[in-house]
Fold:
Amino acid sequence: MTDLIKVDYESDRPTVLARDLHKELEITERFSSWFTRMCSYGFDEGADFNPYQNVQVRLEGTREVRRDIQDYQITIDMAKEIAMLQRTERGKQIRKQLIELEKAWNSPEQVMARALQVADRTIKQLTLVNQQQEQQIAEMKPKADYVDTYI
Structure:
């Protein structure tokens, strides 16, 4: 199955951008009013979606114009529900893609891979903390020796 929508795997659970979903669902309604309407179905900020500032670059004549636009990182569960609410063939396709993506995300191999990545990050952080502590000890040792000699 070809990917209809781009998925972000950077956080602890995969998300999609609401504007991307809006575009792929081929919604003609203005994004801000559409997203507000979708949120009225009981989605909660912080649990189902998080605000996301996005920079959009467009050419207007000969100059490049940058604009900050409001977007939202939405969970796969929220995206599936929104796709289902649209009651279109496109919505059905996107929902199927998201279901397949979720199955792959929860496969034992992927769960183990994420666990290993978390363990690797933890080890790197602990190593960095140890290095910082050893550096502080090395810096303090001459002072401690002087105090010991003085006393």
Summary: Strands lie at 15-17, 49-60, 63-75. The chain has a mean pLDDT of 89.
